[in-house]
């Protein structure tokens, strides 16, 4: 069955133009004028864009004694409602568990997905098994990006020797290193001090994670990545100190990308001072929300291109789960939601305010990360042959965000009461129209896993060059770079 999207303005990361677009067999078949098809979708007044890719989600994730409440069913439905057509989730081995074993668990959970998805692998401990299985994960499973937690001491955190060993292995295999950049040792000390002084409430979560702990860890990870010769992706960049380190590294030609979250761009630290414990605890995440100076830095980074991608780190816990931390802020499960709201919030606060162009919006919500993760132009593009993951975006459609009408399974929304202007008229996932003006017709199990390739060929070429001319590799990956 063919679908034609008519009368819209196509927007990609590099241009906008008036054209129709025809979909067949789940892919974009043709772009041109006066196209016809069996089903016609009217895009008058709308932008037709590559569907959003959220490269940072935690669906049904075991964490802090519980599981995040949105799974691959509710999470991917929430994604589609907000114009996101692909998510990248983190397969997370528990300490001592093999990577392939953990992947099997994520394979099982993700069969419910309503939109396409891929995985990053987390490295939560180090040993020969992890070293060996990394090769299989990259070469057989098509998972090329590996996250390392520099925080959560005693749980997920890895130390510098483990970080360096893992980064070197990734350099050899053509993978990408990712980091959660916070100094976990310092956080643990500050948490203990605050608790001992009787600061047990959610506001102390923010005090225990000042921007310096993030800036220090980002700098350290960048230097370790440089020594290992591996490209580095810094997740949930929330502050100027971390952004400054990334900016500086990029200016020096290092292959480093930074990912701010929509929450850090639009919500600030005053949320933790709210008199209602539940309100503040629902917003506990790491890194915490920051002040205006940091928000301005993040927006400037998106405008200048020193930050590349806007994500959500969607890791949603119910109020009941958050209450595990009553009387001890260190036990509040860390994480917030946002999958459904990332695109409308970024359009409202980014494009409608004039901070970003529609093309930049496409770049930071979709195309840049498709390039970084090596699934472009299958994803993140409007060209014949690409997957028909498309959002028809109505810049005039408005709503007030509310938990009462959301798709996410939790009982609140951190953006409650925020007015957004700019919403999907249609969201299309591999040719299936999953959302029509707010009404969902998505299909459980429609989502497929997206395997990706590493940069082994380029790394081999680099090592040849290195043998001839240089004593150590530089962090060049060969990943398509322009403007990302
Ligand atoms: O608080 C957060 N960010 N929770 C999710 C896990 C992580 O650190 O990414
Ligand atoms: Zn993290
Ligand atoms: Zn995360």
Write structural notes for this entry.
- The protein has 484 residues and is of the alpha/beta class.
- 34% of the residues lie in helices and 21% in strands.
- The chain contains 15 helices and 18 strands.
- The strands form three sheets. Strands 1, 2, 3, 4, 5, 15, 16, 17 and 18 form a nine-stranded mixed beta sheet that branches. A seven-stranded parallel beta sheet has the order 6-9-10-11-12-13-14.
- Helix 2 links the parallel strand 9 and strand 10 (116-123).
- Helix 7 (211-228) runs parallel beside helix 8 (240-251).
- The longest helix has 18 residues, at 211-228.
- It is globular.
- The model is unreliable at 457-482 (pLDDT under 50).
- It binds N-(aminocarbonyl)-beta-alanine and zinc ion (2 copies).
- Residues 58, 180, 236, 285-286, 313, 315, 334-335 line the site of N-(aminocarbonyl)-beta-alanine.
- The site of N-(aminocarbonyl)-beta-alanine (URP) has 9 residues, from loops.
Which properties best describe this structure?
484 residues, alpha/beta, 9-stranded mixed sheet, 7-stranded parallel sheet, 21% strand, binds N-(aminocarbonyl)-beta-alanine, binds zinc ion
Q: Specify the biggest β-sheet.
A: 9 strands, mixed
Number of strands: 18
The ligands found in this model are: N-(aminocarbonyl)-beta-alanine, zinc ion
The unreliable regions are 457-482
End-to-end separation:
35 Å
Our count of helices gives 15
Task: Let me know the average pLDDT.
Answer: 94
Shape, please?
globular
Query: How helical, in percent, are the residues?
Result: 25-40%
Structural class: alpha/beta
Q: Calculate Rg over CA atoms.
A: 21 Å
Strand content: 15-25%
């Amino acid at each position: 069955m063919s679908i034609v999207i008519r009368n819209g303005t196509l927007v990609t990361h590099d241009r906008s133009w008036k054209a129709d677009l025809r979909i067949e067999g789940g892919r974009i078949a043709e772009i041109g004028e006066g196209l016809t098809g069996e089903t016609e979708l009217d895009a008058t007044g709308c932008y037709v864009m590559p569907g959003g890719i959220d490269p940072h989600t935690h669906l049904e994730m075991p964490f802090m004694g519980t599981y995040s409440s949105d799974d691959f069913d509710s999470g991917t439905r929430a994604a589609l409602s907000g114009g996101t057509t692909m998510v990248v989730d983190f397969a997370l081995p528990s300490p001592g568990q093999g990577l392939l074993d953990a992947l099997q668990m994520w394979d099982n959970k993700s069969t419910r997905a309503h939109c396409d998805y891929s995985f990053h692998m987390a490295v939560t401990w180090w040993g020969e098994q992890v070293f060996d299985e990394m090769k299989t994960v990259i070469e057989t499973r098509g998972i090329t990006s590996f996250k390392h937690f520099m925080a959560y001491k005693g749980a997920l955190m890895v130390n510098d020797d483990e970080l360096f060993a893992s980064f070197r292995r990734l350099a050899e295999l053509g993978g990408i290193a990712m980091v959660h950049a916070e100094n976990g040792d310092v956080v643990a000390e500050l948490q203990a001090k605050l608790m001992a002084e009787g600061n047990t409430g959610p506001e102390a979560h923010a005090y225990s994670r000042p921007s310096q702990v993030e800036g220090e860890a980002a700098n350290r990870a960048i230097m370790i990545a440089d020594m290992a010769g591996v490209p580095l992706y810094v997740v949930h960049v929330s502050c100027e100190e971390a952004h400054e380190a990334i900016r500086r590294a990029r200016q020096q030609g290092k292959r480093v990308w930074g990912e701010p979250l929509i929450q850090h761009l639009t919500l600030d630290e005053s949320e933790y001072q709210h008199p209602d414990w539940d309100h503040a605890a629902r917003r506990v995440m790491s890194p915490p929300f920051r002040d205006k100076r940091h928000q301005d830095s993040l927006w400037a980074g998106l405008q200048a291109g020193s930050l590349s991608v806007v994500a959500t780190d969607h890791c949603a816990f119910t109020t009941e789960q958050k209450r595990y931390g009553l009387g001890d802020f260190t036990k509040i499960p860390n994480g917030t939601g946002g999958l459904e709201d990332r695109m409308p919030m970024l359009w409202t606060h980014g494009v409608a305010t004039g901070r970003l162009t529609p093309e930049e919006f496409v770049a930071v919500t979709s195309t840049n990360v498709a390039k970084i993760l090596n699934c472009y132009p299958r994803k993140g593009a409007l060209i014949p042959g690409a997957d028909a993951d498309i959002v028809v975006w109505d810049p005039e459609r408005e709503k007030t965000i509310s938990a009462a009408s959301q798709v996410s399974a939790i009982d609140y929304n951190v953006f409650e009461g925020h007015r957004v202007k700019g919403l999907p008229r249609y969201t299309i996932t591999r040719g299936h129209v999953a959302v029509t003006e707010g009404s969902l017709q998505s299909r459980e199990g429609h989502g497929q896993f997206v395997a990706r390739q590493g940069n082994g060929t380029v790394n081999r070429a680099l090592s040849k060059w290195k043998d001839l001319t240089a004593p150590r590799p530089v962090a060049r990956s060969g990943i398509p770079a322009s403007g990302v």
